[in-house]
Design brief:
With 212 residues, the protein is α+β, with helices and mostly antiparallel strands. The protein contains five helices and ten strands. The termini are far apart.
C-alpha cells in the first residue's frame, strides 16, 4: 500500500533530523496561514458587498436598454411594482471654453427621483434639482471633481459637452457607478439627454427599480 505523499516527505525529513523537519513544518504552517488569510479577505469583501449592495447598484434592480428606449408599457409596469428612476448616459469628448483642454467624459442625465438609494456628495451641498436647474438659458451640470481639475473648469465656468453646460457643482462621491468608471462623470437633467441627432448617439437607459 502506497503511503500518502505528505507522510513520505515527513519521513524523509525525519531521517535528516529534527532540524530539517522544522523547515517542513514551517512551510506547512505558512501554507495553512495563507489559505486562511485568503478565505478571511474573501469573506470580508462579500460581507461588505452585501451590506452596501443597494448603494453600489443604486437600487434593487438595474435594467439597461442600449440604442432603444424602454417602452411606455414596460415603464408603466415597472412603476406599478416600485419606485423607478430613469437615467440616460453616453460618452463624449468634453472641452473647456478655451478649447485647449479635451478629455473623454461620461454624460449622465438623471430624473428627479435619482438616486433611489444612497446619496451623492455634491459641493456645494444643494438639492440635485437646484444644482442642475436652468439659469439664463443654460443648464447646470455637476461634474466629477477630478474632471473639473483636469479641464480647469471650476464652479460657475461653462464647458462644451453635447451642448453648452455650466459647472454648478462638483461631485465628490457617486452611487450606481460599479463597473462604469471608464471616464469622468458629468451629471445633468434628463431632458437634455437627446442630442440633435439621437440616432447618431449611442444611448443607454438605466432603470433602477427600488422595492416599495
Amino acid at each position: 500500500m502506497n503511503s500518502p505523499v505528505w507522510f513520505t516527505f515527513a519521513r524523509r525529513e525525519l531521517r535528516g533530523g529534527l532540524k530539517g523537519f522544522r523547515i517542513f513544518l514551517a512551510c506547512l504552517m505558512l501554507g495553512v496561514a495563507a489559505i486562511a488569510g485568503v478565505g478571511s479577505v474573501a469573506d470580508s469583501l462579500l460581507a461588505g458587498l452585501r451590506a452596501d449592495a443597494r448603494n453600489i447598484l443604486g437600487g434593487d434592480v438595474d435594467i439597461e436598454s442600449v440604442h432603444v428606449p424602454i417602452s411606455d408599457a414596460a415603464l408603466a409596469y415597472m412603476r406599478s411594482q416600485g419606485q423607478v428612476s430613469q437615467v440616460t448616459d453616453m460618452r463624449s469628448m468634453a472641452r473647456n471654453p478655451n478649447g485647449d483642454q479635451r478629455t473623454l467624459a461620461e454624460l449622465k442625465s438623471v430624473d428627479s427621483a435619482y438616486p433611489l438609494t444612497g446619496s451623492i456628495d455634491i459641493e456645494p451641498a444643494l438639492p440635485m434639482a437646484e444644482v442642475l436647474a436652468e439659469r439664463a438659458g443654460i443648464w447646470g451640470a455637476a461634474i466629477d471633481a477630478k474632471l473639473a481639475e483636469l479641464m480647469q473648469t471650476p464652479v460657475g465656468l461653462m464647458f462644451q459637452l453635447a451642448g453648452t453646460q455650466r459647472v454648478t457643482g462638483l461631485v465628490r462621491d457617486f452611487v450606481d457607478e460599479a463597473g462604469k468608471a471608464l471616464a469622468p462623470l458629468v451629471e445633468r437633467e434628463l431632458r437634455l439627454a437627446a442630442a440633435p441627432d439621437p440616432a447618431a448617439v449611442r444611448r443607454q437607459v438605466d432603470l433602477l427599480l427600488a422595492a416599495k
